[in-house]
What we know:
Blueprint: E1 2-3, E2 13-17, H1 22-36, E3 41-47, H2 61-78, E4 86-91, H3 101-112, E5 119-123, H4 130-140, E6 148-152, H5 156-159, E7 171-176, H6 182-190, H7 210-218, E8 221-226, H8 233-240
Parallel strand pairs: 1-7, 2-3, 2-5, 3-4, 5-6
Antiparallel strand pairs: 6-8, 7-8
Amino acid sequence: MKLLDPRTLPGPVWVVSPHPDDEALGCGALIAALTTLGQDVWALLVSDGAASHPGSRAFPPSRLSALRLSEWRAGLAELGVPPEHTQTLNLPDGALDRCDPAVIRPRLQAAFAGAPPRTLLLPWRRDPHPDHRACWTLLMAARPAGCRVLGYSVWLTERGTPDDWPPADEARPWAFEIGGAAARKSRAISAHASQLGLIQDDPGGFTLAEAMVARAVRGPERLFEPLESGGTAESLSRQDGAP
Ligand SMILES: [Zn+2]
């Protein structure tokens, strides 16, 4: 696996999160490295994040969504991405696979209009969460031609099957070592208090496991660049239609 040099990623770089926290867990150190280098980095939040604690009375969906948006912006600020470099789509958490790419495409293009991406960081196409996979499909249908795409992994190590990892002819694997960014990455993850035990009145609610957070902070971050990245949208949709 080759080491990723952040100086080789053309800007503007957009980091796309299906849910608040994916960016911090999956590629927080890379984001910190890019902003430290002075790269033009932007962030897009795709879902409203309202589904992590469906049984909480203290945090009904609208309050939870507002909290998670503020956590996302606080975590990004730790990584050097200011609030004015953020965009949100507010699509329904847990139901991104029911969103029509043709309907979402103009909204994505509008979100990107101020700084069209030359590099997109997305959860890997088979990162094992339905929203993460749907996010890939939505973004690949809307990305500008020639835009470089790297899929970061969030749940691949914990939940992935061997088939979820890309074979050598599908994507080029990259590793990004955490290095001196561990403290910033850790603070960015810690900003997501709602996912770390803050909400106490929903026993079925989601909580990030300590071991998962520790692995994410330890690194390395793993990214996969589809071999057709930079190719035409047509060739990509053909591959996305494959089983
Ligand atoms: Zn997620």
